[in-house]
Amino acid sequence: MTEAIQPDPAPEETAAPPAEAVSAASEDVDTVLESTHTEVADAEAAVTEPALPIVVMRKKHRFASRWMHWINFPLLGVMIWSGLLIYWADSDAANLYPHQTYRIGIGSWTLFRFFPDPFYAKLGMPFRLAEGLGWHFFFMWLFMLNGVAYVAYTVISGAWRELVPDRTSFREAWQVLLHDLHLSKTHPPVRKYNGAQQIAYTAIILSGAGSLLTGLAIYKPTQLHLLTWMLGGYEFARFLHFWLTMGYVFFFVIHILQVVRAGWNNFRSMVTGYELVEETSTHA
Q1: Residue range 40-50: average pLDDT?
Q2: pTM: predicted TM-score of the whole model, two decimal places
Q3: Which stretches of the chain are DSSP H helices?
């Protein structure tokens, strides 16, 4: 008996997705694509955009050191000015006075005397010896007190660690000299006091102590005869005292030129205690 062959059942038709589902899926795809595009754009911006400079205010000089620096400036100016009034009495061009301290020469031969008569005449300094002595002997005590206070503060506060030269200072000083003379493109290390400044400022402090001791030996050669003897005698103490002063003048000239060269930001830091420093910041 032959069995009847039954035809395969027709496949069921798949119901079409609702329009709302299609729209939601499309929105999800768009959201993913937009998010991916944004992330790629941000990544490209982070790579291609340059770092943005920002200016920050940084502490540089302590209050006490700034005040004693500015107090010392006029004090030393008055000491040099009154010293010139004293030097006039020993600087007669006709060599009427026996001292040969303030001059450059060998033996009795003199190349140059400090200072020529026109120099004193232009500044109105002749015949003011007593006035110069009065000013000098008064302000020397203020100069001494300010110097002692500065040294004591530097030691107690620990600021001497930044100021006193170390074993790298002389090498740095040579780098600074070559760089400032445009003989080398190697920039010296950037810090509060470079090697050249450490040597110069320490030398000025020692010169101040030398000026005080030689000045006392000249001021009271009898009462302080031991000090005068240790300094090589009265005439040699005068010689040392004078050339220490010339060292101050030389330092002043170089110091002012360096301040001008460093710019307003460096000068302002010695007035306010703060300097403005540029730092880089990436774009967020």
Answers
A1: 55
A2: 0.71
A3: 19-48, 63-88, 117-122, 129-157, 160-163, 169-180, 195-219, 225-230, 234-262, 264-272
